[in-house]
TrEMBL record:
Native organism: Methylobacterium nonmethylotrophicum
Record GO terms (molecular function): hydrolase activity; metal ion binding
InterPro entries on file: FAH (IPR051121), Fumarylacetoacetase-like_C (IPR011234), Fumarylacetoacetase_C_sf (IPR036663)
Family to which the UniProt record says this protein belongs: Belongs to the FAH family.
UniProt-listed Pfam families: FAA_hydrolase
Keywords, sorted A to Z: Hydrolase, Metal-binding
The keyword Membrane is annotated on this UniProt entry: no
Gene Ontology terms: biological process: small molecule metabolic process
Name of the molecule in the record: Fumarylacetoacetate hydrolase
Keyword Ligase in record: no
Boundaries of every Fumarylacetoacetase-like C-terminal domain copy: 230-373
Domain of life: Bacteria
């Protein structure tokens, strides 16, 4: 499959089976001064169309709370707004006609959470960040030392198992234990807040980098969408943009490393689980990443969910249950094994983003999420929060159903 570089094409961002799945999303409708819930359906010409089903489901949250969200999506009547190609082409801010609709992230009122250190490779990179104290120049030498002490084949080690605890005892005795190893192979998963509800950016929009960061990377992940009663109802793709220097200086800077304007990208669409696509498909999927810079730099890699150290259902249970309720549901990033170390500049400094990088995250069942990187303050500002959404839906007569 050809990479998405200069143009947005609906066929390129849809899953490999096209419109066979139950695909939901959100668009901004300028004439309504607000967002709409849409279903992707095949039009008379065979092309993908966006059908506004907001009258039936004012929010994606409402759709996910249905007894059978996929069936509810397929059964909802609505208005055809536009072909997907036209809306997708109008989404990048620098090419947008503000009088026409554009794509948004396919979630709204859900809490946006993330699981950290769920793959052995990324776990070791977090240990390296910690020891380097955010300095990329020191990373190469530390990587060799950590590999010598810990080893690089931890995939078979079940977190919290007696074997994992025995390894912990050895590393503690050697002075090599780390808080990242604690959540990577210890009994408790790391679950943190990635972004505020309604703040995520969608496919075609710009993703944000903190201007103070000099060492950062994309994190291509699958994100599960979970209803308030802990049912996992669907999945989408996400970019958990990470500032390695901030987090490396101190784990207490995790919030600053993760939660910045436009730093959470989700999309292109939410694929709801049905007979043709389920959590087992997610467990078997491979997520690929491509970064293409304006300087000609290219980076690619992939992350197989089968190598995750904690099962996705176990991560959801760690996020939500008797001690944590989410009445509007939640989105959970599952983590990534892809931690790029290829040098982009000076030898030993590894990878870091540059403004203008095009990031493409793809999986067969979920399609492709495409974003261009900008500094946070140069991305579109987030001004439409929960209060604005409620007022907009009330003015349209869509609340109270």
């Amino acid at each position: 499959m050809q990479p998405i570089l200069d143009t947005f094409d609906a066929r390129a961002i849809l899953p490999e089976d096209g419109l066979a799945g139950a695909l939901a999303g959100r668009i901004w409708r300028p004439e309504l001064n607000g967002p709409s819930t849409v279903a992707l359906r095949e039009g008379a010409s065979g092309a993908a169309e966006l059908v506004d089903i907001t009258a039936a489901f004012p929010t994606i949250r409402d759709l996910c709370e249905a007894e059978d969200p996929a069936a509810a999506l397929r059964g909802a009547a609505g208005e055809v707004v536009a072909p997907l190609d036209a809306v997708l082409a109008n989404t990048p801010p620098d090419a947008r006609d503000p009088s026409k609709p554009w794509l948004l992230a396919p979630v709204d009122l859900q809490a946006v959470k993330a699981a950290g250190v769920t793959f052995a490779v990324s776990m070791l990179e977090r240990v390296i960040e910690e020891r380097a104290r955010g300095n990329p120049d020191a990373a190469a030498a530390i990587r060799l030392e950590v590999g010598r002490l810990v080893g690089d084949d931890l995939r078979r080690l079940k977190p919290g198992s007696p074997e994992a605890m025995a390894l912990k005892d050895v590393l503690v005795a050697q002075g090599a234990w780390s808080q990242y190893l604690e959540v990577g192979i210890g009994p408790d998963a790391e679950i943190f807040t990635k972004a505020q509800p309604l703040s995520s950016v969608g496919c075609g929009q710009e993703a944000g980098l903190h201007p103070g960061s000099q060492w950062n990377n994309p994190e291509p992940e699958v994100a599960l969408v979970v209803a308030s009663d802990q049912r996992i109802v669907g999945a989408t793709l996400g970019n958990d943009v990470n500032l390695r220097d901030f987090e490396g200086r101190s784990a207490l800077l995790l919030g600053k490393a993760k939660d910045n304007a436009a730093s959470c990208a989700l999309g292109p669409f939410l694929r709801l689980f049905d007979g043709g696509f389920s959590l087992d498909h997610v467990r078997r999927t491979v997520v690929s990443l491509e970064v293409v810079g304006e300087d000609g730099f290219r980076l690619s890699g992939s992350s197989a969910l089968s190598e995750i150290s904690r099962d996705p259902a176990d991560l959801v249970a760690a996020m939500m249950g008797g001690t944590h309720q989410y009445p509007d549901g939640a989105v959970l990033f599952l983590g990534t094994m892809f931690a790029p170390v290829e040098d982009r500049g000076a030898p030993g400094q590894g990878f870091t983003h540059k403004v203008g990088d095009r990031v493409v995250i793809r999986s067969p069942g979920l399609g492709a999420l495409v974003n261009r990187m900008r500094h946070c303050q140069d991305c579109e500002p987030w001004t439409f929060g929960a209060a604005a959404l409620m007022r907009n839906l009330a003015a349209r007569g869509l609340l109270g159903a």
